Amino acid sequence: MRGGRRAVAISALTHGVVQAHQGEVAVRSEIGTGTIFHVFIPISVQGADRVVGPAKLAPQIVGQGRHVLCVDDDEVILLMMQRLLQHRGFKVTAINRATEALAKIRGEADRFDLLVTDHDMPEMSDLDLARYASGLRPDLPILMSSG
Fold first, then answer.
1. What is the count of structural domains for the chain?
2. Average pLDDT of the chain to the nearest whole number
3. CA-CA distance, 1 to 69, in Å (whole number)?
4. Among the listed ranges 17-31, 39-53, 96-110, which one has the minimum average pLDDT value?
5. Looking at the structure, do residues 33 and 90 belong to the same domain, yes or no?
6. Residue 48 has pLDDT above 90, yes or no
7. How far apart are CA 84 and CA 76, in angstroms?
8. How far is 2 from 126, CA to CA, in rounded Å?
């Protein structure tokens, strides 16, 4: 803290995406109250007049009871992923520790149809988890994500 002010920053990724879409970020911060970020993205950009119809929507993903093992050390993200996937018809096992996920795969490898894992976790990265999981179950699809 310098001169009674707090430094407030957004991630380089967020800043890059907003700039790429010719947008702006406005920040308001008050000590003791908090910080508010407003992200402004234009509704249309140059060249938008060439669009002739609505974009095709991606097909809806339906789980049909398939079982997903979700691994993320952030409880909020984990709960959100669990709810979203369950809403789409997937059965979900949500775990917040990579070592616990490996134990589940080791003990019940055929139970899961997909492993979704966060990139940066305290115990190990998604690459390490994927490597160990692939050794236990080579045919298990793995989706790695990062916030």
1. 2
2. 80
3. 42
4. 39-53
5. no
6. no
7. 12
8. 37
- Bridge partners of 142, per DSSP, are 115
- What are the backbone dihedrals phi and psi of residue 122, each rounded to the nearest 5 degrees, phi first? -60, -40
What is the rounded CA–CA span in Å between residue 145 and residue 123?
16
Domain that holds residue 119: 67-145
d(CA 132, CA 128): 6
Q: Is the pLDDT of residue 91 over 80?
A: yes
| Cα–Cα distance measured from residue 103 to residue 109, given in angstroms and rounded to the nearest whole number | 9
